[in-house]
Each structure stands twice: as C-alpha cells, then as structure tokens.
C-alpha cells in the first residue's frame, strides 16, 4: 500500500504522495465569521491583514500543544483538514501518516487523533519531521533541523548512529515566527514611507495586505540584488520607497539571534554538524550571514514539504488493531538511497559549507577580562576561582584525542606546575575552582573544560575541548563571566598580511 503523508508545520502544511509535494500552504484560515461569507477552514492567507477578526493562524499550534484544546481550535483544524483533503483526496488503499513538528506534544497528537476519527480518517501513525528529514538526507554527521512556524521557532537535534537517525531533543521559542518577521519588516517599510511620503500603509487594512502579499517577492529581490522598491496603491495614488537588504537584515537581527540561539543550544561548541533549514528561511535577508558563524558545519537547504515527501516514500508498518495503537516514530533507518532514486526530491536539496572565511582565522594572542589583557603565550593559562589549589595536571580523560573534532592529542596538554593563572573572585555563579585551561596545539589554541556547570564559546557549550579563534567570546558558568579572545601584535599582522 502507498503512503499519503501530511506534514503539520503551520507555516507550510503540506500533503504528499510518491515523493511529490501535492500542496503546501500556511495554516491561516477563515474562522466562520458570517460577515465574511467564507466557510470556516478555507485558506485566508491573503486576507490575514485585511480581516484579522475573521481569520485564525494559531488554531493548529493550539491543538498540537495543549491538552483539551479549546473546542473552537479543534473545529477550525477539522474544517481546514476537510478543505485541504477536498482538493487532494486520499485514494483507496492509501495509508495516512502524519509528520509532526517539534512543537507537537503527546497530548496534542491525541487531540488530533480525535479530530481525524470525527472526520472518518484512519491515521496509521505519526513520524517525527526532523527524524524523517535527516533519514532521507542520509547525513554522515549528526544533524540539527530548524523549524520556523507562523508563531514559533524550534530546532531538533538528530543523532546519526550507524545506519539510523534518532531524534534526541528539541528546543523552542515563541519568538522568531514567520509572522513576527513579516511584522518587523512591515514596520520598517511603514516608518520609511511615512518619513518620505507622509503616508502610513499600516493605517489602512487594504494597503497593509498589499505589503504583506508582496513580502516574498520583495525579500527575494533584496537577497538577489541588494535593493528593492516597496509600494502600495490607494485609489489612483502610488506610494513607493526604496529599501536595502542591510536595512531588512538589521531590522530582523533580534529575531535572528533568537533563531540562531536555538542552534547554539543544541550544537556542542566547535562540533561539525549538518544544519537543515527550509529554503524559504535560508533566503531571508541577512539569514545566510548569520549562519556563517557555524564554522565547519554544512548547511542543507530543503524545500517546504520535504518531510511529507520523504515520509510518502517510506516502507512504513501497517497500523495494528485498536484505537490506542497508533505509532509515533522517532528513530528511522537512513534512507538516502531511496531518496536518490527520486530525482525531483533529491535535486531540490542544496548543500554548502559554512564559516569557511573564518575557519583559517588567527589563534588569539590575548584574553580580555574586565579591561585587562592576559597573554596567551606558550605556557598554559588556567582560569577559575582557585585554580592553583586544584590538581596541577589535566587528566587523561580531559586530554583525550579526538574530542570536539580535534584529530590529535594536544602537545603539552598536561598543565605544568609553572602554569599561569587567572584567579576569579569567590561567589561567581556557576564558576568552578578550576574552570578551564587554554593550551597551544602547534599554531592553534585549544580550550579545555574542567567545570561542573559548563564553559561556552560563542554561546555553545564546550564538550571537553575545542579550538578557539580570535574574535571568540568565552563564557564561564551561568551567568558567570565572559572573556573576549583577540589577536594583536605579530599574530594579527601575520593574519592580515597579503598572501603570495
């Protein structure tokens, strides 16, 4: 039997069969308000700003995340599913599998099962979207899959162990959703237009909807050319302003920091991973630049509906009898071979390396703390509340080869008795007596973590040890203290000298 797959990311709810995405659209629907004349559940994306009181974009997220979700939200999810399946009917003999987003809770899936049964739909099982995406890509590295919803952002870590992809954990924020990004850019356009034309497009529902509808083409042009014109028409008048990619990137930076912060939470510092992000998100103005900080990682761009399309290709088990036997799969065999056989789906994936410009950066020469510079010379530098009172050598477990992507043991990894120290004040939250050590590995500098509560490089927790570069920021503990690593003198001069 073939699989009919449904992917429930509310930014792009997608239906697929045979490796093909049949339809993909945001979960924004009319709520059945009699004044609109539009049936509940029909798509309202192009009326979202014109008729905010008659539309809903939160019903799916509400059902997926709450126990006993409000009856109104359940009704709208049922109406939306009914409308979508009327356009793409399920064929006789097809089995239904649902790719679930990171935000979905077990209680929410139970609510969804109840809605499906009311619609006379038999769901064979649920499958984790991040796990099936990673399995389809047959990644050689552990993977983080980013999910951007209408009102949230989430990231899921997937471990690739042997021949399987296994969902490990997810982190989520209520900031960073697609609608919030659009609102930031609408505010930017409005402010600029008011200054230059005296007309505020956000004080008129029709002109606000015009800008909202134009946002995909506007952001695409900004990324492609660096400049674009935003305009609205009201009656016979046309109001237009020129904008730049940098303006959009700067306006979105606080939201991007929240999104990127999710990736930092899941990535052990310095560990090379595959980061999977929808193409729609990668192509937002300024997003690629934000991702360059993940040095040594691979960026994998996938189209909307990719998890649904990949699910529809799997040889999934038949459901067993009984209402309480629906499966939730979070561990899957790698399926890259099957994906490669589906040319259209495979060709939609793009890969590139991140952080290449920074990976060859200079090793730092000094660490800055409270305005004072500490030299990172050939001797080890130990940092903590009482670094000299602890054991004077690094244990073999701490100095083991291969940790955090370092391919060889660190010469001189043992901290000699003559090592230099930075002694921090007592009472610092999360700072250990002997917290971390900076040691040289040839021309590079390595940070060794000995702490209980963690050492973080650029927001990512160090797993035993990691290479560090000039420009990195090292935080000891939580909230702890922060050191800035810089390159000055001969190191900096060498780094900036022209190459022969």
Please describe what this structure looks like.
- With 500 residues, the protein is of the alpha+beta class.
- It contains 14 helices and 28 strands.
- The strands form six sheets. It has a seven-stranded mixed beta sheet. A six-stranded mixed beta sheet has the order 3-2-1-6-7-15. Strands 19-18-28-27-24-25 form a six-stranded antiparallel beta sheet.
- α1 crosses α3, α2 (71-87) crosses α3 (106-118) and α5 (178-197) runs antiparallel to α7 (245-266).
- Mean pLDDT is 86; it is low at 391-417 and 491-500.
Biggest pleated-sheet summary:
7 strands, mixed
Q: What is the number of helices? A: 14
Q: Give the CATH topology of the largest domain.
A: Nucleotidyltransferase, domain 5
The unreliable regions are: 391-417, 491-500
Spatial ordering of strands, largest sheet: 16-10-9-8-13-14-17
Q: What is the terminal separation in angstroms?
A: 63 Å
Radius of gyration: 26 Å
Strand-residue proportion: 25-35%
Please give the structural blueprint.
Blueprint (H helix, E strand, L loop, with lengths): L2 E5 L5 E5 L2 E6 L3 E2 L24 E2 L2 H7 L5 H17 L7 E6 L5 H13 L4 E6 H9 L5 E6 L4 E9 L2 E10 L4 H20 L7 H21 L1 E8 L2 E8 H22 L7 E5 H4 L4 H5 L6 E5 L3 H6 L15 E3 L1 E3 L2 H5 L2 H5 L2 E4 L2 H4 L6 E4 L2 E4 L5 E4 L35 E4 L12 E6 L2 E6 L5 E3 L2 E2 L3 E4 L4 E4 L4 E6 L3 H7 L4
Parallel strand pairs: 1-6, 6-7, 7-15, 8-13, 13-14, 20-21
Antiparallel strand pairs: 1-2, 2-3, 4-5, 8-9, 9-10, 10-16, 11-12, 14-17, 18-19, 18-28, 20-22, 22-23, 23-26, 24-25, 24-27, 27-28
Helix pairs in contact: 1-2, 1-3, 2-3, 5-7
């Amino acid at each position: 039997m073939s699989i009919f797959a449904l992917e429930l990311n509310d930014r792009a709810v997608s239906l697929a069969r045979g490796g093909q995405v049949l339809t993909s659209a945001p979960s924004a629907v009319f709520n059945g308000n009699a004044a609109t004349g539009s049936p509940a559940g029909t798509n309202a994306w192009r009326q979202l700003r014109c008729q905010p009181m008659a539309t809903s974009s939160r019903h799916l997220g509400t059902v997926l995340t709450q126990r006993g979700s409000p009856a109104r939200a359940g009704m709208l999810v049922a109406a939306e599913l009914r409308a979508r399946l009327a356009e793409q009917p399920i064929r006789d003999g097809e089995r239904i599998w649902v790719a679930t987003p990171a935000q979905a809770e077990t209680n929410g899936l139970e609510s969804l099962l109840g809605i499906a049964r009311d619609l006379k739909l038999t769901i064979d099982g649920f499958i984790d979207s991040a796990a099936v995406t990673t399995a389809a890509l047959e990644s050689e590295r552990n993977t983080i899959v980013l999910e951007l919803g209408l009102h949230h952002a989430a990231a899921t870590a997937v471990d690739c162990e042997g021949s399987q992809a296994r969902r490990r954990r997810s982190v989520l924020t209520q900031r960073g959703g697609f609608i919030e990004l659009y609102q930031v850019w609408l505010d930017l356009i409005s402010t600029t237009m008011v200054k230059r034309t005296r007309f505020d497009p956000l004080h008129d529902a029709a002109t606000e909807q015009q800008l909202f509808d134009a946002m995909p083409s506007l952001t695409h042009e900004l990324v492609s050319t660096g400049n674009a014109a935003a305009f609205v028409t009201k009656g016979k008048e046309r109001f237009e302003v020129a904008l730049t990619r940098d303006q959009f990137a700067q306006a979105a930076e606080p939201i991007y920091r929240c999104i990127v912060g999710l990736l930092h939470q899941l990535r052990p510092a310095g560990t090379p991973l595959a980061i999977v992000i929808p193409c729609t998100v990668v192509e937002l103005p300024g997003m690629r630049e934000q991702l360059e900080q993940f040095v040594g990682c691979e960026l994998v761009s996938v189209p909307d509906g990719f998890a649904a399309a990949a699910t529809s290709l799997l040889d999934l088990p038949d459901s067993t009898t009984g209402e309480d036997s629906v499966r939730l799969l979070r561990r899957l065999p790698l399926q890259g071979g099957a994906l490669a056989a589906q040319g259209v789906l495979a060709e939609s994936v793009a890969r590139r390396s991140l952080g290449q410009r920074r990976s060859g950066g200079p090793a730092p020469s000094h660490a800055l703390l409270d305005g004072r510079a500490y030299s990172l010379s050939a001797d080890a530098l130990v940092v903590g509340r009482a670094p000299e009172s602890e054991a004077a050598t690094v244990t073999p477990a701490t100095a083991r080869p291969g940790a955090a992507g370092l391919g060889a043991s660190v010469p001189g990894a043992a901290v000699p008795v003559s090592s230099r120290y930075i002694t921090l004040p007592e009472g610092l939250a999360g700072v250990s007596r002997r917290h971390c050590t900076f040691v040289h590995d040839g021309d590079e500098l390595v940070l060794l973590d000995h702490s209980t509560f963690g050492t973080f490089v650029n927001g990512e927790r160090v797993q035993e040890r990691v290479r560090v570069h000039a420009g990195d920021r090292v935080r000891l503990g939580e909230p702890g203290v922060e050191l800035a690593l810089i390159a000055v003198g001969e190191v900096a001069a060498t780094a900036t000298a022209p190459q022969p």
